[in-house]
Amino acid sequence: MGEISETSRWQGRVAKILSDKRGGFISPDDQSDDLYFIASQVEHDKLEILKPGDIVTFTVGKAKDGKLVFANKVELVSAENTNKNYTTETRFQGHVKTLFPNRQSGYITLDGSTQDLYFIAKQVEENQLETLKAGDAVTFTIGENKEGRRFANRIQLIDVEQIDQNDYPAESIPTPITCDELKNQIIEQFKRIVYTTNSSEFEDLTFLLLKNLGIHYLYQYDKRNQAGRADGFFIIGNLAVMYDCTLRDGFEEYKKDQIENYINKLEQAQLTFNLRSSDGLQKKKTLRIDGKSKQVWIITLGQTREISDYGNIKVKEVSVNHLIWLLQERLNRDVIEEDDLALNLLSRIEKVIPA
To answer: Do the Cβ atoms of 106 and 99 come closer than 8 Å?
Structure first.
């Protein structure tokens, strides 16, 4: 985010509104981390004038430790402007991912990100799409249309043969990362799960989070044959959990029959999974679960709580935020053992964890 001054104004888009907390998050146009804001920092103290996707300007506030953590003096850009295409002047670098010659278009992947940006031929330098091929390094600006969709704009091919290492400014040369910086980056990236609006992506991100927690016996069901099934299953220590992910509010009635089905499966002595190997072949895996403590987890963006108790099987809503908190705890420990992780997981899920 360039050089920071608490009086300088920046521009971005509202990423999320948290009505119950009277606040929200803003995504700066320069692709830096999202910034939190509170209602009192919105012009006229009216949070209700904002909605996700709105273009806003703001100043940046600093915490006592000097880190940038929130947006101040948030002002909505006039509706007149939000209905027009919007383009940043900052140039970014990426690589051509896919080209569609017949449609005179393609996708570019932003370097340092998994984000793919669409573009059309007229946005390529001199309108020459044929100068590009998959894998080419390019620079570009980022535009947004009135629906809030981002696209690559003013695309220029980088001539690799003419680049001299000495041509790069000193600030562009990567600097070594410290262990603490890497841990913080891992956690900050996982915290972005709360902005997910795609159910399938939420399921995959949750599975990745559970893998990073160090759960060894972890299985994700095949999405192509998932109707009525849970999203996955894991065993850690003496705990066996069948889990399902949902972005739906008030899911209890909607998932009532599915939860009963999960409980019936856990009451069996063993579970059998159809697994797909890296070569595409399928094989069956059978796990014995008799004698283990069993739970059904519905993983959400909400709060961790117990929903019901079916004798020896408990049904819980588990906040993905609390799983991220557990990952942070794990990354900061000097000794990691599976039994310790299992006990930590159980004890933390049994009570409310600070967000």
So the answer is: yes
